[in-house]
Amino acid sequence: MSKAVFLDRDGVINLAPPQGKYITSVSQLHILPQAPGALKLLKELGFRLIVVTNQRCIGKGLISADEMDNICLFMNRRLESCGAGIDRFYYCPHDYSNCCDCRKPKPGLIQTAARDMCLDVKSSYMIGDSEVDVGAGLAAECKLVCYISRKKYQNNRVLNCRDIWDAAVRIKENTQEVPLCLRRER
Ligand SMILES: [Mg+2]
Ligand SMILES: [Zn+2]
Predict the structure, then answer these.
(1) For the residues 125-145, what does the mean pLDDT come to?
(2) Considering only CA atoms, which of 29, 132, 47, 112 is closest in space to residue 84?
(3) Ligand 1 centroid from CA 128, angstroms
(4) pTM: predicted TM-score of the whole model, two decimal places
(5) Distance (Å, rounded) from C-alpha 29 to C-alpha 15?
């Protein structure tokens, strides 16, 4: 089984749209300057990169699923040219009223990705900028969740991070920590 980093998209890899707005065309997509380097670092650490994103703009009829796929493709061409390509995108297209199992904070997107791609969630990480990302990562039982926010989330499985680069460095440090059970007294 592979290990993965599950990533929220808006506000983590690209600039978040204003509150209540959605990215419905590639012209609105601005990749954050820290993102390619951070994603590349995570790939070098052996992680698969999986985007898990809530996009209820599809359920609201503001954009079609095909258009959403095109935005993700466009994003990935840009990232791939920096050696930072995403392995797969998963999105929840549903509006609240659908009561689906995939809209974060439910763990459905992560669980589906894990099944499809044979991922070991317990040795995987989640990076997000919203409390629903933290909720999904914890519910899916990821090893740790990196929360990019000025707010602080108090939980021993949550790392409060500045941005995606900070999150990638913290994940690197965490993977290199020697587990307590293997430490020896000198
Ligand atoms: Mg977000
Ligand atoms: Zn859904």
Answers:
(1) 98
(2) 47
(3) 6
(4) 0.94
(5) 7
